[in-house]
């Protein structure tokens, strides 16, 4: 055939659009397959390589890896029919792959090669077994921790918010309270433990006092700062329309100070987590801090790691809820700070 007769249609040359489409198809599937490949690799490494650390637990870890592998396959299949699901999975795929790679390294250096000593560094299989075997005790401990946290944090917020508002609104109140704030506030709440253990009738009320003290300071300071920095022109406009002092505080000052108040609430939540665990480790008879101390006493560090995982999930969920509340209240700043 002469060269003049050769056309793309006769030799079936793929068009540019087809090449781009195949390229994007491959680019889409590679990140989706990576978590599945690494999970299968983890399963093979965990089941086929010989153990150098003793492992007498049921194979929960193996079952969960297999279950996750099946889940990845199902999500990949459903992604063909649900583009949003596929998009979310592709976004999270690198993180899932990195976490799976971390599990492989953890399992190899502990269970398979015994490079890290027992009982301080158990394998992920032992931690998973502790999570499943101790789920009831961990659940009850988490509920006790939440009860203590909410009571202490709530009372701290109830005390800190009005104190901050009054300090920001009334100069005379600020004059008398500010020295107390400067003296007591910077002292870490945990430094009051010896006094609290003597002054209060039991460890529970002493822990509540420590949590209130830990939350009161940052909430008061940030609320006071927010109220004091509200643009004075807002008050002038409201006064010219006949607004009362109560209206100025509740409808002008507080809404304008909300971003600063939420900063104080976030700061106090972080301090409350620390104080809660320290308080439970020292004297409270239940809670995640107590569970960690109890497991450490029996040298069962797999249970310590299990409690840390529960703690991470619990506290991260609380912060997420607080961010959701912030997005509802501060609609104009929604999505500005993501958690």
Write up this protein.
The structure is a single chain. The chain is mainly α and 339 residues long. 78% of the residues lie in helices and 0% in strands. The chain has 13 helices and no strands. It has helices spanning 8-11, 16-48, 60-78, 83-112, 124-133, 135-169, 171-184, 193-199, 203-228, 232-240, 245-282, 288-297, 301-329. The N and C termini lie far apart (65 Å). The model is unreliable at 1-11 and 16-20 (pLDDT under 50).
| Pattern of helices and strands | HHHHHHHHHHHHH
Largest sheet: none
Mean pLDDT: 84
- Spatial extent as radius of gyration: 29 Å
Percent of sequence in beta strands:
under 5%
Number of helices: 13
Stretches where pLDDT is under 50 for at least 5 consecutive residues are 1-11, 16-20
Structural class: mainly alpha
Shape: flat
The number of E-state strands comes to 0
Oligomeric state of shown chains:
single chain
Helix content: over 70%
Distance between the termini: 65 Å
Task: Give descriptors for this structure.
single chain, 339 residues, mainly alpha, 78% helix
């Amino acid at each position: 055939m002469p060269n003049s007769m050769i056309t793309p249609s006769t030799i079936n040359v793929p068009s540019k659009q087809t090449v781009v489409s195949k390229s994007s198809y491959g680019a889409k599937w590679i990140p989706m397959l990576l978590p599945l490949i690494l999970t299968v690799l983890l399963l093979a490494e965990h089941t086929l390589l010989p153990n150098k650390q003793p492992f007498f637990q049921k194979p929960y870890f193996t079952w969960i890896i297999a279950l996750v592998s099946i889940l990845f396959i199902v999500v990949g299949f459903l992604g063909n029919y649900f583009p949003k699901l596929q998009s979310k999975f592709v976004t999270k795929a690198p993180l899932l792959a990195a976490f799976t790679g971390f599990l492989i390294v953890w399992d190899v250096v502990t269970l398979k090669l015994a490079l890290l000593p027992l009982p301080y560094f158990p394998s992920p299989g032992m931690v998973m077994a502790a999570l499943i075997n101790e789920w009831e005790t961990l659940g009850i401990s988490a509920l006790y921790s939440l009860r203590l946290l909410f009571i202490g944090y709530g009372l701290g917020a109830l005390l800190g918010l009005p104190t901050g508002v009054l300090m920001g609104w009334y100069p005379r109140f600020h004059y008398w309270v500010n020295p107390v704030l400067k003296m007591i506030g910077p002292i870490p709440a945990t430094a009051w433990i010896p006094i609290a253990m003597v002054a209060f009738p039991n460890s529970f009320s002493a822990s509540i006092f420590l949590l209130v003290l830990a939350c009161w300071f940052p909430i008061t300071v940030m609320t006071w700062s927010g109220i004091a920095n509200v643009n004075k022109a807002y008050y002038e406009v409201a006064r010219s329309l006949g607004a009362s002092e109560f209206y100025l505080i509740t409808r002008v000052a507080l809404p304008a100070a909300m971003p600063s108040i939420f900063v104080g609430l976030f700061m106090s939540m972080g301090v409350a987590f620390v104080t809660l665990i320290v308080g439970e480790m020292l004297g409270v008879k239940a809670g995640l801090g107590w569970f960690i101390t109890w497991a450490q006493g029996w040298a069962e560090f797999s249970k310590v790691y299990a409690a840390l995982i529960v703690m991470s999930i619990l506290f991260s969920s609380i912060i997420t809820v607080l961010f959701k509340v912030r997005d509802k209240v501060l609609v104009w700043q929604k999505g500005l700070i993501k958690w």
